[in-house]
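Structure ticket #2291
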Amino acid sequence: DGNYFVGYSHWVTPSRAYYREVEAWTQIESVVEFMRFVNVRDNPEPKDLKIRYSAWGKHALRAPYYRDPLLSVAQEPSLVRLPDDRLFCAMRTNSGYLWYSLSDDDGETWCNPRPLLRKDFGPPILQPVSCAPIYQLADGRYLLVHHNHRGHYQTEPERTFQPRHPVYLTLGEFRTEADQPIWFSESKIWMDTHGIGVDGRNEADDPKVQTGIGLYSSFTSHDPANVFWHPDRKFFLVGKQVTAHFLAELRVPD
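Resolution: structure written out below.
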């Protein structure tokens, strides 16, 4: 309705959480909720700002923790508008892959979240516990940015948030009659640190070295230019073009 609508992670207070005590932060219960800034365009005084919440409390979006489906780990939602006016929300989880939900009433209510697949009945899009933003390109297609792996869950179960490299792009297209309305191409590697920190140290020698690629990003789209802005390894602000040449070989299933 012309105002600002934001999704956010709600970390559940320990007194209400399914796990009262956790082994690591990756087990802290979390859900996805939304807030609508009702009158921000009127430039109100801060005390007069009106905020309305949706998918809140018992209606929050949940996704199962990979070791215990009764625990929800759903975080960092990313939103795009579909051609049929629905909202599409992708979110990171601790299941090894992304999940998504849909709203057909501008975010007031949402369907139960489900795994994000390449296409209907296709394989899931892999992701550790790391941000995976989705944006609309100038030509109307969609761009999903992700790591394309499940983290260190096999060797270090609670390090499911690492490594946060390399970064892949997958191209999405709207499918009118599909159950999942955006179908995605195979992923193509876009950026990598190869496990080397900004100071030259290797994560193989010191796992505390910051080698991840920051995906807390924004996006500008002015046909034909599409630019992805992000804090690379949380040190440098980088604007990186998503060129037609790079995307040319990506094919979305029919």
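Closing remark: Residues 126 and 149 are 5 Å apart (CA to CA).
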